Every structure is written in C-alpha cells, then in structure tokens.
Amino acid sequence: MIVVLSLSLGLLLAIALAATGAFVVEARVAVRRRVIVNLADGSAVDGVLLRRHRTLLVLADARLLSPDATPTRMDGELVVERSRVLYVQAVR
Question: In order along the chain (92 residues), what is the average pLDDT of each group of 10 residues?
C-alpha cells in the first residue's frame, strides 16, 4: 500500500514539474523578439516584446500600424493591455 502511494505521489510530482517547465518555456518564446500585436480595434503594433505580464505586454521600438495610415513611431516603451490583444505574431 505504501509503495503504491509513493509511486502515485512520485508520478504526480513528475507530471506537475513537466507541466510547469512547459509553461515557463511557452512564456519566454517571443520575449526579446520583434512581434506584431494585433488589437481588437483593427490596428496593430510592431515592436520588440520586452516583457510579458499576466495582464500587460511591454514593447520597445514600437510603431502603430493602422489599415489606412502610414506607420507611426511610438516613443519610449509601449504598454498594451492583454485584454485588447487578439493575437501576437513573432516576425523575425
């Protein structure tokens, strides 16, 4: 009985560690890469993704891309709420 419980606990721990490792790898995929953040209002932002937070994306060297206008360069770091993001494309 104790052996079965020990094996079950060990298997559960191994699965939890594997899932945590996969989550950490996924969270770092696009950081420090150039991305296009497509927003819910139809516009997009091209920039280097510096940080991903639970509720925010922080981009540097950003340009606002609108369907009917030329790209507009943004000064400083741009903070985008993740609730406004449709999807993020890693481009380079």
Answer: 66 64 51 93 94 93 91 94 94 80
